[in-house]
Amino acid sequence: MIKIIPAILEERYSEIENKINMAASFSTDARSEGEEAEYVDESNTFDEENQSDMAGGSYQGHRHDITPGHCTLVQIDICDGVFTPKPTWPFVSGIDTDLDFKGLITEKMGLPHWEDIDVEIDLMCENPLQYVERFIRMGASKMIVHKDSGSKEEIKEVLELIQSFGVEAYLGVAATQHVQGAQEISELLQVANGVQVMGVTPGLQGQTFNPESIKTAHKLREEYPNLHIQIDGAENEETIPQFIDVGIDTFVVGSALFGNEDPIGEYEFLSSLE
Q1: Could you state, in order of their start, the residue ranges of all structural domains in the chain?
Q2: Which fold has domain 3-29+67-271?
Q3: 104 CB contacts (<8 Å, ≥6 apart)?
Q4: Beta strand 228-232 pairing with 194-198
Q5: Tens-digit pLDDT profile for residues 18-55
């Protein structure tokens, strides 16, 4: 079975909370006969008044029992508005001043379902080295840094820094990477834990799929048969099978899930594609 990673790209932290709460109800077996799956909003947006409820300065959160087949990983897209066309949270409100971000990186609050759902951060930022430690402190278990967001030497340093915290480091590459060839990024792939091929331009959901990404995924799979590859951008029931045919099994999906009138059912359906 393939793996679907819900992608969250939002300007406000409250919307990130809502989507993580929704993802907690995603399952490859979401419905039993006569039952409807639903999610419960358990947002814990930070405000100064709730600091007294934080035990020992560390957010304790709620424990959720996740059964096999449930979603256990989401991706949060972080865009600085420099490397990308538009900024997302926390850059919209100010990465140095946003209260929710401060609460997360100081452990005065936690992401929803933090004990059961891991978070990978897609760091779509120019000069990403300056941001790595803060997003790891926010709770990232995996981080994607994009090849084109810095020089080869800078990106290698970022990948190594991420790994020094015990966090998986993935390299993000453009849909057209196959034109330059896999050898052009071979030094970085020796460091990275895996690669994320973009099916669209980084930073915006709802874009038209770039079929060049299939060629890039195919070339990487041929030259690096043991490399873990995931695809991000414009992934849906039409595009996913094309990547499955070249040996890819992990897909980051945003609009097709959260823009669907039945996101829970869509998660189950996409997970069943072959």
Answers
A1: 3-29+67-271
A2: TIM Barrel (3.20.20)
A3: 46, 110, 111, 137, 138, 139
A4: parallel
A5: 999 999 999 987 544 334 445 445 444 444 444 333 33
